């Protein structure tokens, strides 16, 4: 089946189009699902992606050459019809639908099924081959309601008016989603952000994602930070930058906060289980909904999801692409 599409350790090669999907090394022709570093990089000859992803790649990697592909519009490359379908992961994220020789292949990149105010929701697309991530591909990963996790953050803030809450959130996608989720729960006070987040938040605003009153968290006296929420990259939670804050409640927003050892390793006082990836139930229900003839599994815990497919009489294989193990953008 689909001998015209080839998984390699460094990406998925679409032979008749002479193009690579999410290649981890520079290629002449790259089809990119979204802007995270384990899927996008600089150095390609030419990139096809959504307008938002191209803007993210220009900001993060200096990518200059690209063709914007609107959601739902077809492009053709030497007999292959290519469409970009919303993936619900981060701003501009897309599944790539390939149609050739009477077969349909969907490469999801990363995706989630939960509502997200910062990006278009995932759209299931029936296909012959479904290439799915498995970042949280273990039954232990069942993410709680996002609103309840945000409420836990706000409860901690209001219960400690002399402290601040410092939240580690990945610079692309998670930080912006967290800010918008806080606004949706009625928190309209200024939110302070680390300098490393400023340009990406501004880019989200340019694409119509309103985040309210954001202020730089640098250079302010500690007393002004009391009773405030500060959002930073995870790498800043325990470095010199954070030591000037007024007795911060250290939080982190990640699906990995389900694993207590990870929270302890990062000295996280308030673990918030908020993920931009599908959990176990969402992975398995999506495979059922899409109903492919074969599922290709990559990016994470391939073995458990492969076993699940086999026990449900579904054809599947693990791709084991390199460099695709974690959602952590650092």
From TrEMBL:
Task: Tell me which InterPro entries the record gives.
Answer: MBL, RibonucZ/Hydroxyglut_hydro, Xnuc_lig_assoc
Q: What is its EC number?
A: 3.1.-.-
UniProt keyword terms in alphabetical order: Exonuclease, Hydrolase, Ligase, Nuclease
What the entry lists under SUPFAM superfamilies is as follows:
Metallo-hydrolase/oxidoreductase (SSF56281)
Gene3D superfamilies named in the record = Ribonuclease Z/Hydroxyacylglutathione hydrolase-like
- Which GO molecular function entries does the Swiss-Prot or TrEMBL record give? exonuclease activity; ligase activity
Q: Give the protein's recorded name.
A: Ligase-associated DNA damage response exonuclease
């Amino acid at each position: 089946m689909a001998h015209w599409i080839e998984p390699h350790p460094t990406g998925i090669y679409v032979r008749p189009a002479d193009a690579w999907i999410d290649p981890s090394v520079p290629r002449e022709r790259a089809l990119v699902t979204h802007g995270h570093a384990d899927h996008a990089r600089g150095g390609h000859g030419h990139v096809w992606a959504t307008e938002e992803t191209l803007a993210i790649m220009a900001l993060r990697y200096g990518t200059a050459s690209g063709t914007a592909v609107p959601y739902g519009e077809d492009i053709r490359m030497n007999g292959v019809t290519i469409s970009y379908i919303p993936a619900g992961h981060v701003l501009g994220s897309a599944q790539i639908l390939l149609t050739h020789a009477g077969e349909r292949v969907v490469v999801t990149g990363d995706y989630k099924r939960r509502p997200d105010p910062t990006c278009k929701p995932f759209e299931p697309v029936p296909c012959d081959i479904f290439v799915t991530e498995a970042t949280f591909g273990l039954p232990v990963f069942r993410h709680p309601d996002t609103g309840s996790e945000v409420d836990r953050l706000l409860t901690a803030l209001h219960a400690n008016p002399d402290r601040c809450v410092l939240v580690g959130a990945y610079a692309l996608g998670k930080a912006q989603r967290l800010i918008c989720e806080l606004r949706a729960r009625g928190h309209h006070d200024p939110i302070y952000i680390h300098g490393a987040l400023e340009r990406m938040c501004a880019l989200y605003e340019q694409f119509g994602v309103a985040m309210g009153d954001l202020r730089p968290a640098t250079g302010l006296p500690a007393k002004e930070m009391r009773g405030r929420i500060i959002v930073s990259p995870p790498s800043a939670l325990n470095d010199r930058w954070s030591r000037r804050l007024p007795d911060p409640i250290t939080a982190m927003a990640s699906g990995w906060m389900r694993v207590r050892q990870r929270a302890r390793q990062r000295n996280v006082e308030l673990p918030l289980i908020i993920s931009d990836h599908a959990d176990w139930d969402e992975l398995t229900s999506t495979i059922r909904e899409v109903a492919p003839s074969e599922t290709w599994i990559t990016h994470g815990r391939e073995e458990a999801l492969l076993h699940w497919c086999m026990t449900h009489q579904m054809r599947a294989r693990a791709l084991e692409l390199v460099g695709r193990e974690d959602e952590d953008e650092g």
